Amino acid sequence: MMAMATPPESTKNSLSYRLAVHARTRWPRVASLDVRYRGQFAYADAHLADGTIQPLIRLRYGGSARHWGFGLYLASSGKYEDQVLPSGLPFGSPEEALDCACGLYLGDPV
Question: Is the four-CA dihedral 75, 80, 81, 85 of positive or negative sign?
Fold first, then answer.
């Protein structure tokens, strides 16, 4: 059985920073972003100004800090499910994944 790649600490730090900057720039309703790690996965939750915490995405590390697999949080099941990004690919940049989830849960920013 092959061991799953886990992101190195430098990649974790870079990912958290990239997502926070992107959320601050593109999604004004997101007061802060919480990114946590478990094995090969990174999970991002949005903390909204009204105090709501909205689970958004699960990213799967595959050995590249540039391209991640994408899972979307589904409120109907309370679970994350692998998705295809609007680009048609099952992987992409963390920012693409964040935009996809925020667009779904928060609507287009004004």
Answer: positive
**Whole-number average pLDDT of the chain:** 92
Percent residues over pLDDT 90 in the chain: 85
Q: How far apart are CA 84 and CA 1, in angstroms?
A: 26
Q: Is the pLDDT of residue 3 over 90?
A: no
pTM, 2 dp: 0.91
Please give the span between the terminal C-alpha atoms of the chain, in angstroms, as a whole number.
48
Convert 43-54 to b/e letters by CB count within 10 Å (16 or more is b): bbbbebeeeeeb
- 71-87 residues labelled b (16+ CB within 10 A) or e (exposed): bbbeeeeeebeebebee
**CB-based contact 70:90 (threshold 8 Å):** yes
48 vs 84: CA distance, rounded Å:
25
